[in-house]
Design a protein that fits this description.
31 strands; four-stranded antiparallel sheet; 46% strand; mainly beta; globular; seven-stranded antiparallel sheet
């Protein structure tokens, strides 16, 4: 009996030790997210992030690889594909504009999105009412979120005279039913002084997290403009159980790249104002807003010192680490390696600057990881690579040399897979 008791105690201690090892490993790397990659001709494959083994494959609708930005995936493995109004793949047919493809993790479904287009005579003018709702997945997987700018235009000879715009946000069930209003407001009546309302009139644009809506979204009021957009303000909408409220942020956000902590942690880019054939007319920056504090984490002119030549350096994407400790970005340039570099509009010839830029261009795109704190200290830099997303608190998925690689920025260690990837936009880390 004593021997059996000792053996039981030994097994208990061994079990406790093994459980401690599991806990230590889990705390060191955090719980890994799921990983999907788009593949030709029209499939998305889920891989085990630890072994890179195939876990499942879903057949996507035609056009998904041509418009990867129109495909949404959440952590539950649900998917949604709906072309945006400005997507180059969309055509003028009502059927194409109105279609929403869904995957609930087991089977596909198709929804109408309520595309509205009515044209009728109003005296000597034409009155056009148009709305194309944009649907988004929820993080929980139980709802769809919908946003639209409904335009009421007055036209003459296909020239816009004025417009009334109403923004509406609502939530539905997975089938698109049981509509619940979240927010609605009218934008100021606007005269379209250039003959195109988008050049002079305010509209509302929404940003939601990659993983789906979960209690918040960001809305920016802006005028697309003829040569340069004008940003009027950004608002944080928060809510639950049908009660949603908005609050203005300290300044408008021009191009939101990522956000976390219900909008308390945001990374946004300030793009170059270049127009009319020019690429480098101002300073590209990427800014981190954390609990109201602003930190510049990428500054084109400070880093590349390129005022004289028409090549612009910018961050095409950014991903916040799950523990909020770091931000990973992809740095790109508007000129390809080996291509001619012309003088900027106000530039003066500077041979040393030109030579230095030519040496930098072959490194791009590049992955840069910086600390999410004061000074934004660089943690890692990987040339000829692109950021895809954080797998956990310590590991970052990148695309390097046309294959998927898992990088540990703090040490530089890499786990290289054999998964070929044409573009980092084809990778979904959720």
């Amino acid at each position: 009996m004593l021997r059996l008791l000792r053996e039981a105690e030994r097994l208990r201690r061994r079990s406790v030790l093994l459980w401690a090892v599991v806990l230590i490993a889990g705390s060191a790397f955090g719980q890994s997210r799921r990983l999907w990659v788009l593949k030709e001709p029209n499939t998305i494959v889920e891989y085990d992030p630890a072994t890179f083994a195939v876990k499942g494959t879903v057949t996507l609708p035609a056009g998904a690889l041509e418009s990867p930005g129109a495909l949404q995936v959440n952590a539950k493995g649900q998917m949604l594909f709906a072309l945006g109004a400005e997507d180059p793949a969309i055509d003028a047919s009502k059927e194409m504009r109105d279609k929403v493809w869904l995957w609930d993790g087991q089977k596909t479904a198709s929804l109408g999105r309520g595309y509205l287009y009515i044209s009728e005579h109003a005296g000597s003018n034409q009155k056009v009412t148009e709305s194309l709702p944009t649907p988004y997945l929820s993080m929980a997987g139980t709802n769809l979120y919908w946003f639209t700018n409904q335009l009421g235009k007055l036209q003459r000879d296909n020239v816009d005279l004025e417009v009334n715009t109403t923004f509406t946000a609502w939530r539905s069930d997975w089938a698109g039913k049981q509509r619940e209003e979240l927010a609605t407001f009218d934008l100021p009546n606007c005269r379209c002084t250039t003959g195109a309302c988008a050049e002079t009139c305010t509209e509302a644009r929404v940003w939601v997290p990659d993983s789906g809506v979960s209690g918040y979204f960001l809305l920016t009021r802006m005028i697309p403009g003829q040569t340069e957009p004008k940003f009027e303000g950004t608002y944080l909408y928060e809510g639950s159980n049908g009660s949603w409220a908005s609050a203005p942020l300290g300044e408008p956000l021009e191009r939101i790249l990522d956000a976390a902590e219900n909008g308390a942690f945001v990374v946004s880019a300030i793009p170059d104002i270049g127009c009319c054939g020019w690429e480098n007319q101002s300073n590209d920056q990427t800014v981190l807003y954390r609990d109201g504090k602003k930190t510049v984490i990428f500054d084109e002119r400070a880093r590349y010192k390129n005022p004289n030549y028409d090549v612009s350096f910018f961050t095409s994407n950014a991903k916040i680490a799950p523990d909020l400790s770091a931000v990973a970005m992809t740095i790109q340039a508007t000129v390809k390696p080996g291509a001619p570099i012309q003088l900027a509009e106000q530039g003066q010839a500077n041979p040393p600057e030109s030579e230095r830029l030519r040496k930098i261009l072959p490194e791009l795109p590049a992955v840069q990881v910086v600390a999410a704190g004061e000074g934004s200290k660089q943690i890692a830099y990987v040339p000829r690579a692109s950021t895809a997303g954080w797998l956990n608190e310590k590991e970052l998925v990148i695309v390097e040399g046309g294959v998927l690689v898992v990088l540990t920025p703090s040490t530089g260690a890499k786990r290289k897979s054999s998964i070929k990837v044409a573009d980092a936009g084809f990778v979904f880390v959720r």
